[in-house]
């Protein structure tokens, strides 16, 4: 992922850790034997895989992976991949951290799916602990909403099957539908995945039908993590995708301001006028940030602020911002329930 992409609370720093070849080689020998029934912890879905689903070939950024049989031990390395895996009835044995919240933690949309099961945390964002992953002896690693590098892919390929991020999309730029289909195919649950996606599409359509006025409004999603620096999310960011599927129009000028391949355009206070839209959603991490934005003299001049058409939504407590930042088949219904009345109240 190029510099300028920020899918979480802070700008990601991607100094990919180099794993010692000798250590990985040793772990490889142990991991390759991890598929026997004596050592594995069964984590396949309650509904089971579909008849004739395997072998299956899944194309991705770094090639094509052939999965010969139903995966029993799955590790997710995409920041939100665990949601689609859980929705399909599979509990990952390993996952990465994102919001400084363990993925089985407080998120209300996934709590019941995890139950008492706790996955091993195998990294933070795109920095993976290869030794921990290998020790879990996974027969499948999924990395959809990720910035996995070729070096990391090659290392993991020494001891497991990997479905890397979707081909043809920038890192962190594939739609939730594409990533869910990739995950469903890899798990041998394509028919179930199709029904799952159709259900979420129907939720979005219900909102559009209820609020046809949304289609006439432009909307932007923004944040600010320090004084004088602001960001607006492009059309490839999950947050923008979420609001476009609610029916809103996005502002193409934001995409033009972003660096190639980035999901965010960085703005100075002097460029805040690009955020003078019909609806402006700030996804912020604190009341202090909200107050700082509102106190900016150039922001005060924006009509969207003067008319009180700006909405300040927290990432957490309640977890509204986190829900549409994840923008997954599990988090979308929660996000819709929380954000729809907020948007409807703006006149």
Structure characterization notes:
The chain is of the alpha/beta class and 347 residues long. It contains 14 helices and 13 strands. Strands 11-10-9-12-13 form a 5-stranded mixed sheet, sandwiched between helices. Helix 6 runs antiparallel to helix 7, helix 7 packs parallel to helix 14 (331-344) and helix 13 (320-326) crosses helix 14 (331-344).
Topology of helices and strands:
Layout: H1 21-31, E1 56-60, E2 63-67, E3 74-76, H2 81-87, E4 94-97, H3 111-114, E5 120-124, E6 127-128, H4 130-135, E7 140-142, H5 150-157, E8 162-163, H6 176-186, H7 190-210, E9 219-226, E10 229-233, H8 238-245, H9 252-257, E11 264-268, E12 279-284, H10 287-295, H11 297-300, H12 303-306, E13 310-314, H13 320-326, H14 331-344
Parallel strand pairs: 3-7, 4-5, 7-8, 9-12, 12-13
Antiparallel strand pairs: 1-2, 5-6, 9-10, 10-11
Helix pairs in contact: 6-7, 7-14, 13-14
Short synopsis of the structure:
The protein is built from 14 helices and 13 strands.
Please tell me the overall pLDDT.
87
Q: Report the principal-axis shape.
A: globular
Counted beta strands: 13
Question: Could you tell me how far the N terminus lies from the C terminus, measured between alpha carbons in angstroms?
Answer: 38 Å
Rg over C-alpha atoms, rounded to the nearest angstrom:
21 Å
Helix content: 25-40%
